[in-house]
Each structure stands twice: as C-alpha cells, then as structure tokens.
What we know:
Elements (H helix, E strand, L loop, with lengths): L5 H7 L3 H45 L4 H31 L14 H62 L1
Amino acid sequence: xxxxxxxxxxxxxxxxxxxxxxxxxxxQKFIEEYKKEFDILDRIFVLKEKQDQLEYWLHDSKDxxxxxxxxxxAMRAADKELLKLNEELKVLYSSNSNExxxxxxxxxxxxxxxxxxxxxxxxxxxxxxxxxxxxxxxSKDKEAKKRGKVKKVGELKKKKAKKAKxxxxxxx
Length: 172
C-alpha cells in the first residue's frame, strides 16, 4: 500500500529513498492524468486550424469542382473527428466530475485550460527531474558511506594487526 498522507509516511518510517520514489510515482500519475485531456485539447486546436485552412481553400476552389470536392471531403472528415474529440472530452470531464478543476470547463475557456495543463505537466516533469536527482544523490551518499565504512574496517584491521605484532614482540 502506498501511503498518501504525511502521517501515513511518518508512521511507516519511510526512508528518504522510498519517499523520493513515491513522489516520482505521484508526479508521473499527475502527468498521465493531465496528458489525456491535454492531448485531446491539442488535437482539437489543430483540427480547428485545419478547418480554417480548408474553409479558405474551399472558398478559393469554387471554380475547380475537383479541388472543391477534395476540400469538402477533408472538411467533413475534420468535422467528424472534431465531434469525436469533443465527445471524448465530455466523457473525460464527466468521469472527473468529483474534481472541481475539470468539472464543467466552459468551451470558451478551452485555450486557458490547455495552457494550464501544459504548465502543470511541465511543473510535474521538473519535479520528477528534481526527485530523480535526489535519488541519485542519495545513492551516491549511500555508496560513499559504504566506501567510508569499508575503508574504516580496513584501517581497523591494519591497526589490529599492528597491535597484534606489537603484542607478540612485547611477549618475546
């Protein structure tokens, strides 16, 4: 079981390495959650730009029936995909209805939501980078302590050997 509160962590006496791993995992889960919505919004904005471009081309292709049909077909496909993505977004928002942030996000504020998600994803990536570095530092510290203990044990053995030699010489 993964502890989710500070008191759970304290009562379980989590090591700094375990804490760092838990925090990395937590940030990865946040990124995963935000990424679903972010990817849908990103695709919606790309499709809207595509629709604008197709409308322009449609207007310019009035004299060329072949091009006009090609652009109309592309426009219908973009419309269909846009409807599908908007439906996915509604399902995502309704599944997250217990979260106040995503509940009833107005369509007019999708760009703001997109930017918010982009910033949050970036912040969580930075946090993961920080905790990964912390884990490496902890591993280095542990390795350095281990080397220090091995060195001390070696020094103690040498001192013991010298003492034993002195004791033998003194006993002769």
